[in-house]
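Example record used in the benchmark description.
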Amino acid sequence: MKEDKGRFLVVSNRMPVSLTCNDNSWIAKSSSGGLVNALNPVLKNRGGFWIGWPGTFSDIKFSDMKEILGPLSKKSGYRFLPVVLTEKDIDEFYYGFSNSVLWPLFHDFQSRCNIVPTYWDGYMRTNEKFAKVVLKHASDKDFIWVNDYQLIPLGSMLLEKNPNLNSSFFLHIPFPNVDIFMKLPWRKEILHQLTCYSLTCFQTRRDRKNFIECIKTFYPQAVVYGRGHVLKVEIDDRTFLVGSMPISIDYKYYSSLSSSPKVEQRAKQIREEIYGDKIMVGVDRLDYSKGIPEKLKGFRKCLEQHPELREKITLYQLVIPSRDSISEYQELRNEIELLISEINGKYSTTRWTPVIWRHGSLSETELYAVYRSADIAAVTSLKDGMNLVCKEYCASKGKESGVLILSEFAGAAIQLSRGAILVNPYNINDISETIYSAFMMGEQEKKARMRSMRESIRRQDVFWWVNNFLRAATGKKLEDFPEQDLPSLWPGLLKLSKKYYTDEV
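Model output (structure tokens):
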């Protein structure tokens, strides 16, 4: 009989797939994003679950859910376990507290916070729903990996119901300094909740340092000791670990993908389709933290100050839709469109368009062909937990050269500082001159810089991230979670019934 070494239970706000109903027929669409790309190869074929909201408010029959999620689970190599939420839950928990309070505050945009007391109520109520689903499926031997700011309270709720459960937390966004964190009305509650995990982990040491300073401010008796990636914290009779580990990508996969004949051929076509000597690519989610208007203003300034670059450099900007229903994001899209229109209106010629842009997503093959074709990648985030676009770009280049322009305020800047050209995105002149420097950079320097970044990403890939996280949280490595059959899902769903899948708590 095999020893039960436990399973992975990944918990995030969203499942890797979204369910939608069209003409009384349910379909599933794969989700994108850094977390999905990072954890898909980790969870595959290890007999685990991914718990999250499936993206729908509509009632869905058990038979329909089984018909859709069953084959998808087999294809993915792990089970999808949905947490069904109401429209009110999403309004208060997701759009409300998570993205109108925590997101702007943790990204140093406190002026954009919309403090509404009912948002907190919805945040806690919705986390209780996640907790009930986790508790129904988790055992003491399982490793529960809670992800991101939407689910900060989950660990404390699990601990209250079953102290033997092993849950750890990773924050994918930045953690603010104590002066900013103090402005949160629920600061004590949030900080306490973050101490209820066996491991609370951040992207960078800077984020961890901010968290430790908050701990010392609110818990003067706290003792912090250790060195390296993981520290130990003691508060009264409670002990937990605090780590800093940069998330990464499946380097081998993306490097191999970008070198495939299909991608190389498409990259060649893109270079033929876009006029100019060099292509600069930007791939950003539609969000005020990503610095898209700043990038465009810097590019406009560069064309103004360096007319010799006109008709020689083209910016290909991909804007990935996000929170389109929020007026603030609609206004941001309008600002981006206006800036692009102004740049193209002023500098376009009969054969050259300075900015080519797309609002939408690309297939994996097309995205990596764009990366492969680009001479320069520009990431100008005003604040970013990590940013995986810059790592994807480097992985895509193979032995080719390329230049990465990277914001000082992206978490990745710490890891890639030796190879990237760092830029202050708040300084339009700095962006302008950095673009010019990237355009003029010699081939030998470009290759040396890219080689340095690629080697760093190769060493600290997604499996390095997972293994270090697991070692810190459980003392195990990824290989200690062996391949196994998919766990049973449907009987568990039947037992949950309305009690766990409606608004009844």
